[in-house]
User: Fold these one by one.
Assistant:
Number 1:
Amino acid sequence: MPRAIWSGSISFGLVNVPVRMFSAIAENDLRFHLIHEPDGSRIGYQKICKTEGEPVPDDEIVKAFEFEKNEFVVLSDEDFQAARIEGVKTIEISDFVPYEEIDPIYFERTYYLGPQEGGEKVYALLRDAMTKTGLAAIAKYVMRDRQSLGCLRVREGTLTLEKMFFHDELRPPDEIAPSGVKVAKGELEMATALIEQFTGPFEPARYEDTYRDALCKVIAAKRKGETIAAATPEREDEQPDLLAALRASVEAAKKVKGSARAKRNAPRKHAARKRRPAKGR
């Protein structure tokens, strides 16, 4: 059983579901340290006052909000306590909505929710009711002194909490996409054909972090004392005619897809069976 990172309850109506929260993600990032090359010692940092240029003790450091440039409002622990709202240990459901109506841009991070001891039945009740209706729940909760928006859904029989961004945290895409650009009919048809060649079911196991794997090989080689030489970057050719490039891409994709299909459909070779001599009658 993994270690819970939060515990509280899901509240909808007068029903409370005691739950524990677990991280659903185990990131495989490579972590690097800064060290002093001559002796291999780690690099440390001090909290320096930028005006005095001297280290500052922890008891002289406070939190402040920059209201305007160089105008700071200092906040104490009591100030933060005064701003705390009810429901610090509660995931408060306010609405049930169709999951497919939620734009994925709102999702930030995923957590699993499991029942606390003694709360298995009411947990199963909420899970089964959400499964039957096919709806997701929108809720608010407080974690690490910050209120967050969340989406509750059922995944593989487990209640899952998607931490979401609030609406005012999303940046509008104004002036990012080009406007007034006309696409030729032939180019659109070829682009559509190219997309069709790459269309298939989503199989997450197919996608691997090849850069991380390559970097791990570099680290292993360096550990053995081997010399690493970076490959010379390829020169970028001039941009070909768009339609010609699309046509060549479609043909190349067809060949790759056809080769993969042939391998799948190739008859398997079975070892020849030895014939047994017929029994006499």
Number 2:
Amino acid sequence: MTEATIAPPFWHPALMDAFILDWDGVLADTRLDFTALRRKYFGGRIVPLIETADALPPPLREEVKAEIRRIEMEGAERAVPVDGAREFLAWLRRSGKPWAVVSRNCRDSILLAAERCGIALPPVLLSREDPAVKPEPEALALASERLGIALDNCVMVGDFVYDMLGARRAAVRCVLVERDPEEWGHLADAAYPRLRDFLSALETPSALVPWEYRALAEERGEAYLRAQGQCLWHLPEQGAYRLAVQLARRGAVRLTVPEGARLRMEDWKNSELPPRHIDRPLADVLREVLSQRWPSIQILSDPPPGLRSVDVRGIADADLDAFLLDVLCGDSAS
């Protein structure tokens, strides 16, 4: 399968314009171990160390932060490249993909580990000294801004839960590597036990089901999703938001609304949308709100040729599933 044949709602990381990479565990292996620190200060509990340390009173806060930094710097001294890291970075260069590093580690430890590994860091490097730290979505947004690539055209690659949570909060595609997929694979759009496995997938891309459609694909099959990708759903102005959400939950990725349509007051009242959306262009509202949950969704004013136009005006809520199955699957739906 070639990249040209991978169409929404399917995806593949090789199609993304830019890569946002975690550092430790993805490119550099530093074998950081915070077990003793957690036991000493937090009773052995697994807590987000940076955020929990920030909440401590001084001078304990400074003591814990200094200990975190010490462990990171010691790990950086013995750092070696993750198996496949050099080849992965070479693929990024060959493919013309800009990339950034976004890490929760301190900057000095990243610089030292990069020197020990012989890895040239990219111009865009964000550490915990920068304004936002994963899993806060602003960290990925800042990387995207500095790369000059729209966030929805970036993919996050990480080996830890904070990488996956940051991506989910930012509505960014994400790939888990160097972990057993059983750990946090349910949060990722794709998971590979080893970085080399990920590299092989990049070199031979095939259509993947993103995380938000995984359950739907298991229930109705990938052929159903493929048929959804070939349809353009025409929404009425009245009740458009409610209907758009229902269609999105059922796998619709291409929607269109009447020209000049705006979000009506009565439709806003029956939604959970903030009031700032009242009387805004309907296409803008749907694009902004739906993409946070369904990143593949498109609100089209000038749709490409070849799509199957389907008018859902006048379809009752109770009849929607049967209508969709009839349109998408025909006789095979039975």
Number 3:
Amino acid sequence: MKGARLEFGSPISDAVSRIRFAPRTNNLLISSWDSCLRLYDVEGSALRLEAPSQAALLNCCFQGESVAFSAGSDCAIRRHDMHSGTQEIMGHHDDIATCVEHSDESSILITTGLDKMIIFWDPRLKRALVSKSLQVEVESISLAGFELMLAMGSSAYLYDLRNLDGLLQSKESKVDARIRCISSASSCSGFAVGSVDGRVAVEVSASSTSKNTAYTFRCHPRAKNGNHHLVSVNDIVFNPCVLGAFVTGDNEGYVAAWDFQNRRRLFELPRFPNGVASMSYNKNGDLLAIAASYSYQEADELVEPPQIFVYNMDEDWFGSASTGLTEKRPYISR
């Protein structure tokens, strides 16, 4: 398994908030607190676009290959043309905008903010369709088909995009602490959440006829003075091509891959120079991008300059993951 750091002519000058691979290519979308949205061609090892904005960008997503959206600290939701580099404000939250996702199945844009609102937008008409007031702030959202998952406090909720007037369905998260991230499984039915105290809760069904597998584990069980050292799980991403395989990244810079069916670790990467702020698989699941960046969660965070790494998940990894490592020890990349 080989990894390489992406090179930028002008380094990213503030925290990376989100990275996303494009739906069909190996172009990587990067939002950051330095107010820039970047598009990096991983195959060509070149920065294709750097689009400055007027506010810190706290999240981003693609709509196809040529359009992207960002959520800003100025409450604005921006639409970016990735060919021309132009941008326009589509609308606003009443407080800082924090999350943004686009549903290809329903052609709806979903955003949340510190105003405790979730807004469903029509990107073509550039207007809000439905706004819903929530009791608490949304920490994280994730999409799989028509199913939108939301993390609020220590609870997870499911929302069906085919019925915008419907109610949120509560899902048991099996964690007591605040949820930091939520991720929908794209290759099967289910989701995983990561909490600020280092726990991961998984609920996945391998097929439509099988029962859900649900359990909780401590993701990176490191101890100090005999006590658990609580480290936030900042991101979880499922591999789109390997059933039930997912990776976790924590605030101390550790990334590990897991096999949910056999409940074991597949491998752990060497520690990164910063906490893991965001991760993304490409469409084939053979490239894993990792943003190592401080995230303003703690006063004593590592503050090395933000860096982005891309790992090639080779055939040995795919073979090990698909067979569940029944005859192999967990693989540690060195």
Number 4:
Amino acid sequence: MGVIWFDITTHDIITHMNNYIDIIKQELLLRNYSRKTISAYCLAIKDFLLFFNQEISTLGANNMKQYLLHLHDKGYSPQTISLKANAINFLYTQIIKKDGYIKIRHPKRSKKLPLVLSRNEITLLLQQTPNPKHKLMIEIAYSSGLRVSEVVNLKVADLDLDELTVLVRQAKGNKDRLTVLSEKLVPRLRNFLFDRDGQYYVFESNRGGKLSIESLQKTFQRCLQKSQIAKPATFHSLRHSFATHLLENGVDIRYVQKLLGHQNIRTTQLYTQVTNPALKNIKSPL
């Protein structure tokens, strides 16, 4: 079945929310958006339409502001509100193509510094992870700067143990990237992956197949608690630590940007605020 197109002269015949969701999903797929973004946009539009429960053609700019204020009052983060604003903008500018529509301005994002584990804390965390498989998952995330989704999607063929590289396929933004692999992990990875076909996942569940993201996050939290590290770290903190420690080692920020897969170097520059040696060398006057 082909894609059904609606323009501004016919959109008012659409009365069911699912029609909008289906059209948005088709359009995003054609534009090669990631499945994660497609899911987030569809959920955002569904929530927006359910909030008012009326024909979308009757909604104006004040309604949209009312919805975003509702999200703010509910305690949603600026990042989440920005995503929902993007979804609403996409609906009105790309699907409905409403005349005179002025894009909703994004709320100002909070500038929180990334939570980074020190080298000693990384060592302590690994010492409190006796399970060889769990330890390797944490080590490869830290040593290669991987997101949790990238660890669970990693396949045997993506690891080049001779060249010490990891190929991250279809990462954020549907882009492949190459990152580094620690030489220290190679002997254990060879044993762990012995006689495994290249299309197998590196870290499979006990039942076979891909490990779930939730399972890996829970594993990390258990190990964090055992290590008695007070910081409210998450699995993503391993990626933050990778970037920060590379910069502390003197690696050029442009290389760190490539390894992380950041499109904009300003995203990578955030880590320079965490690892500012000049600032850390200043002594308090007290």
